[in-house]
Amino acid sequence: MNEKALKIMKRFEKKVIDADGLKVLKKDLDLAANSILTPHEKEFENLFGKLPDNLEERIQKVRDISEKYDCTIILKGKVDIIADKKEYKLNYTGNEGMTTGGTGDVLAGLTSGFFARNEAFHSACAASFVNGFAGDLVYSKKNIYYTTSDLLDKISDAFVFCESFGNV
């Protein structure tokens, strides 16, 4: 399975890589180039080594890895760290309910949609914000007791909110 997945990864220049795709990527980290990686802490550490506890040091580690492998990274966490070789942003939207299975898949889907038409860093920032903001909308009604379907139902509301600020 991994060899077949690796072969498929090699065929595409632009990729969003999440979950099991990150495990496959470990076999050839050069395939991260021009891609967006969406690991949580344990997935990141499995690929690139221990993350520091200090936020500033954590940001620097993510930036260093982004530069080394010429990729964009969304490190999912309480505060998402989005970085490429030139810049970084922190996303504070989202909540503890976002640890529900499937919310990372929603993020990967949003990221892919944005990345199909835009450059990687802005795609990653937009996806992280929209996903987290939709999660906050659900949280305001259901606390942490929500499903991925609940999150999906709020994506359009998150887009409406973003559009109120101009071109999305």
Spans of at least 5 consecutive residues whose pLDDT stays below 50 are none
Radius of gyration: 15 Å
Q: Helicity level, as a percent range?
A: 40-55%
The CATH architecture classification is 3-Layer(aba) Sandwich
Summed up, the domain count is: 1
* DSSP helical segment count: 7
Principal-axes shape call? globular
Overview of this protein structure:
- With 168 residues, the protein is an alpha/beta fold.
- It has one domain (2-163): UDP-N-acetylmuramoyl-L-alanine:D-glutamate ligase (3-Layer(aba) Sandwich), CATH 3.40.1190.
- The protein contains seven helices and five strands; from the N terminus they run αβαβααβββααα.
- It has helices at residues 2-11, 20-25, 41-48, 55-69, 103-115, 120-142, 148-163, and strands at 15-17, 35-37, 72-75, 80-83, 88-91.
- It has a five-stranded mixed beta sheet with strand order 1-2-3-4-5, sandwiched between helices.
- α5 packs antiparallel against α6.
- The longest helix is centred in the last third of the chain and has 23 residues, at 120-142.
Which terms summarize this structure?
168 residues; UDP-N-acetylmuramoyl-L-alanine:D-glutamate ligase; 7 helices; single chain; alpha/beta
